[in-house]
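Hi U.,

Before I forget, here's the chain from the pilot set. I'm dumping it here mostly so it's searchable later in email.
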Amino acid sequence: MKIAFFDRDGTIIEDYLDHEWTRIERPIFIEGSINTLKEVIKKGYKIILITNQYIINEGYITIDQYHDINNQMINELKVQGVELLDVFYCPHGKDEGCTCIKPETGMIMKAIYKYPEIRLEECFMIGDSIVDIELAINMGIKGFGIGIGSNYKQENIYQLNTIKDLPTYI
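Structure:
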């Protein structure tokens, strides 16, 4: 099974400063993200979200607020014809030392455990943060960084201006 591992905040929906998330009540989709998800699915990938949500344990939002935003996003994607295979999130604070916060590999390892038919050599990670690229490197898979500069001159790491550029690379 080919998996496209997508970051959530700043990649599919708008991201905010940590303290601003407290007042966010609904997800705002980034321009082109829904169409890009559709294109990725057409190319034979299933989509799994891999999202750091340290703002839960750091006290900016509650677990219920996280689930509310996430469920709204999932429901809107379904309405638009986009089915996610799964969502993995890390609620741990940045200083908790967990093994799931990106760039640690825990969330992808959980996905592989749950879906043993995943073929990592055919997967990729995309996100708007250095930790997304570092996760791709740590897993040995293709990585796409959206608007984060070209700090990584490694094989299989690509820089995109916007999420709309992704379909031309896969």
